Known about the structure:
Six copies of one chain form a homohexamer.
Chain A: H1 3-22, H2 25-36, H3 45-58, H4 62-74, H5 79-93, H6 98-121
Helix pairs in contact in A: 3-4, 3-5, 4-6
Amino acid sequence: xxxxxxxxxxxxxxxxxxxxxxxxxxxxxxxxxxxxxxxxxxxxxxxxxxxxxxxxxxxxxxxxxxxxxxxxxxxxxxxxxxxxxxxxxxxxxxxxxxxxxxxxxxxxxxxxxxxxxxxxxxxxxxxxxxxxxxxxxxx
Amino acid sequence: xxxxxxxxxxxxxxxxxxxxxxxxxxxxxxxxxxxxxxxxxxxxxxxxxxxxxxxxxxxxxxxxxxxxxxxxxxxxxxxxxxxxxxxxxxxxxxxxxxxxxxxxxxxxxxxxxxxxxxxxxxxxxxxxxxxxxxxxxxx
Amino acid sequence: xxxxxxxxxxxxxxxxxxxxxxxxxxxxxxxxxxxxxxxxxxxxxxxxxxxxxxxxxxxxxxxxxxxxxxxxxxxxxxxxxxxxxxxxxxxxxxxxxxxxxxxxxxxxxxxxxxxxxxxxxxxxxxxxxxxxxxxxxxx
Amino acid sequence: xxxxxxxxxxxxxxxxxxxxxxxxxxxxxxxxxxxxxxxxxxxxxxxxxxxxxxxxxxxxxxxxxxxxxxxxxxxxxxxxxxxxxxxxxxxxxxxxxxxxxxxxxxxxxxxxxxxxxxxxxxxxxxxxxxxxxxxxxxx
Amino acid sequence: xxxxxxxxxxxxxxxxxxxxxxxxxxxxxxxxxxxxxxxxxxxxxxxxxxxxxxxxxxxxxxxxxxxxxxxxxxxxxxxxxxxxxxxxxxxxxxxxxxxxxxxxxxxxxxxxxxxxxxxxxxxxxxxxxxxxxxxxxxx
Amino acid sequence: xxxxxxxxxxxxxxxxxxxxxxxxxxxxxxxxxxxxxxxxxxxxxxxxxxxxxxxxxxxxxxxxxxxxxxxxxxxxxxxxxxxxxxxxxxxxxxxxxxxxxxxxxxxxxxxxxxxxxxxxxxxxxxxxxxxxxxxxxxx
Lengths: 139, 139, 139, 139, 139, 139
């Protein structure tokens, strides 16, 4: 997996562990709730991850954008769907979101490179196992 | 149709008209682009309207929330789907979004009241004609 | 109790009730967590309410400002303390917060009027009973 | 002068007076500094008022927008200039600013109505005296 | 040209190219519109670039700040004008903008170093040719 | 003192010096006012620094968060108090603040490492002298 995403995963996991070991009960509850929100319900989890991406982008948080793009890619969101999502972000949030969209396009490239690497490395039947480890709690 | 929504429609239509008659070419282009973004594509228009609702709510603009809720209700979004959307808004945007969600719940009631009124007033077959007039350009 | 605050209480209670009766489990959990955060702990609840006021003001949500000012006034925050809090809000958040501070000063007047009314109406010993009903969940 | 602007002036003046009479030294210093920033310097005050309008609009504060539009109109900003300013606001800030721009267009109408009223009422030579009273400190 | 600006240009050009080659029609339209807004009109392009800088700074996007500072420097904005613009940013946006202003001052130094380098390297008459290549679409 | 904090101090000092030497009178006044706000008054300076931390975090500025955490640690804020402050930030500001809280936890570790280093290096009585040099003006 390429560099930027690997660094994101490493820092996120290391600090979440610290947060949850040092954090109080309320912090843990927030993290639990955060992971429950994106599960399948009346709306599919996939749609909610796309919503999470839109929210992250108009609020302009690169790490949150990266996190939800990973989840979306896992859920099979296509390039065309990502770019139409970028349209919604751009039109609602304005040109101030452009630098974040540029970085999101870079992230998309890394994600696709990682996905094609894995799909080449594993036989088709067991491909699901090649799936990235579940992100765990706490975006 | 109850009061808050009617007032929203009236002011929005009247001012959009002024905006577009007095506004320059670039303003018109922005409004055109704004209405193109939410049409069906790789993602259904319905999903994009839900994204528009999420973006409006985390950026905390009541009029934009009302606008996208009208579009979502027209597209058949159910109460359960609205409430799961509120969950995403709440968890990403925090408690600062609660007053907006309270007002969104009030808007939802008005929308449902308007919808049931219309469905009672018109025979089932022609129900589609009972549909609210298309919102036009410019959210 | 003067008009603006009464209207705030009425709408807030009525809509929170609807939110919590129609809302799903996750929405309820968020509201529960929201009320737990401001209880006494390593930091006194009073300090956390002041923090809530600062956060609400720099994020510029009038209803959230009103809510935390009610809680702060209940917790005995003085006028001088409110105004020093406004200083922090102004310097961090800039002049864009001024209209919110103007409205906060109006809210403060209503709160003090309500407090002096109650303190006159009830004998000193039972004054605590004169206390405003607990706000309940969900700011 | 039409209603919305008159109400804005009345509330703003009344609360600023309270703010500055009850407020501490630091609050007064902030208000003083706020009024110094928009005076002529390397950049004309007029340009800075337009900047204030842009900042207020992308941060989406209606009262601040109204305040800077009054100052801009006083400084002779034309309708064409206002609408090009709205273009910058729209493109940087996105469609989330549209409801604020709608209200700004309404404010512009009231401002123009007030200006033509005054220019009719007073002889041309003394027209400057017809000028709206200086806004004073504290936006 | 010093390092930070060069890196900004390189990444921006590379990713904009990808964005526009992979992006859909609506994304391209937004980028086109974005570049049209800052041309001369009722207001000079220079004033609009300064507005773009103010909007970028109060919304706190470093890349957007850098982009508009490059355009402003190209348009002949002086140090005194930049610093008065920073005053407007600071007073409207508050101390939360200070870290962005610190980085903007660093950018200004790099811009001036680049400008004096070019003005030394080329004969006065052809100085305009020494001008930085036009930024192209998409901030 | 570990790397991230040292780099923060170095850049901040160097650029503030430039800002204040090149900046105009109004910029200096803003910086002066900024440092006055956090002194002891009706509210202790410590509480105001905590408020500054909350404001910085919900507005999501890493440098401002770092600055106020340094001041808070100097004022003796405990880990438990920091984590309860993070709770307020999380609940008001939502999950969009999580990446900032992760970085804040990293900053806290560096601060504690620096504090224990200094407390080991200096005899208890003179410990106060081991105190970090006063931050000076301009966050």
